[in-house]
Hints:
Elements: H1 11-20, H2 23-57, E1 71-73, E2 76-81, H3 84-96, E3 101-106, H4 113-127, E4 131-137, E5 155-160, H5 172-175, E6 182-185, E7 189-193, H6 199-203, E8 205-206, E9 209-213, H7 217-231, E10 253-258, H8 266-277, E11 281-286, H9 293-304, E12 308-314, H10 320-327, H11 330-335, E13 339-343, E14 347-348, E15 351-355, E16 359-363, H12 369-373, E17 377-383, H13 385-399, E18 402-405, H14 407-411, H15 415-424
Parallel strand pairs: 3-4, 4-5, 8-14, 11-12, 12-13
Antiparallel strand pairs: 1-2, 2-9, 3-6, 6-7, 7-9, 10-17, 11-15, 13-18, 15-16, 16-17
Amino acid sequence: MSAGKKRVFSFKAEWQKLQQLPALLRRILIRAVLVLLTGQILVIGVLVAIDMWRKRYRSQGHLPRITLEPVYIGKSRVQLYTYGEDLYEAMLRAIRQAQKRIFFETFIWKDDLIGQKFKLELQRAADRGVAVYVMYDSFANLVVPRRFKRFKSNISVLRYPLFAWISQPFSLSWYARDHRKILVVDSSIAFVGGYNIGAPYATTWRDTHISIEGPDARELESICIDFWNIYRRHKRSLPAIPEPKGRDWDPLLIIHRNDPHLLVFPIRNSYLEAINRANKRIYLTHAYFVPDRIILESLLQAAARGVDVRILLPATSNHILADWLARGLYTSCLTGGIRLFLYQNAMVHAKTATIDGIWSTIGTANLDRLSMLGNFEVNVEIYDERLAEQMEAIFFHDCSNACELTLEQWKNRSPLQILAEKFLAPLRPLI
């Protein structure tokens, strides 16, 4: 093969190669694959059944609550939220005070008391002349009644479709989800983080959001406008929105967007840069911990050079398969010096990190392949010691509701658990 030619994958060619193998070896390979697939299906079936039972009969515990003062970073006022009721109150207040325009983008928007409050306030804003732009993911809201997803004509609605680029089945955009959660009001205040919209998230889920009041809010507005202008092509009646003017350069507060349509994924790079720079401590809080090999190796290398690496995870998340895929990495983490803390009796859904008392990130991206190299995501990267101090306070406050998992405890898990982890391990790159 010449240096200038690229090798093109061909199912036909690979099948022909398989046919050329000795009959016995071919049968062994086919049977091995069938055994693996059967084992995976059985394990997933058992886990789904357990998860359904658990969600039906297990109640959520009480969340420890913490209140923090706002921090001023450059020209912007920054506020962290760790309790849903507090966040929703602030978001609804901003919508009520809107005078010009609102961008509201969410992944999940439930038809319950909280969801209806948001819909009502957005409608009231539109009725008093505010330009309201709503964006939500169609797949994530399939179970939401159609009547809830109907709006009056004075609200512009972009429903991100199930398959945005159906003519390009091998494009990342084909299966990417709009996983962002953003509210921007009057170009002056913006909210972003892990919180979806719904009653369960108000009091029974631990999550983290951030509000930015000031010129940096326009960066999040720009992300909403770009997304709107690209995907409004699926509904030509939607208006185009002019690009915002007067955006600032702020070296202390940087907005990173993952965009599979543009093949841009800076959030993963921001994590890698920060982890590789760390020389004191790394505190991560993540709902789903299924990092790729490079990120995991970076964390292990940090621990090996003496960095205090701690990861806070849900003991039991809302996605049992993600839990088991994460557990397949626990042995590597614990033997490599990474400390694991399992949040008890409630779902921790935050996607945050703070490193060396200066660098922090809050956003919508999980540490898994779907978020790092798949979905539309947005994270705020902040260089500020005062905010990092608050992030560390949140981390330790959460750890008061967590149990540390030791290597000795982990080694004593049952052989069936170990077998299930091994069957599921090949699925890890897909999640």
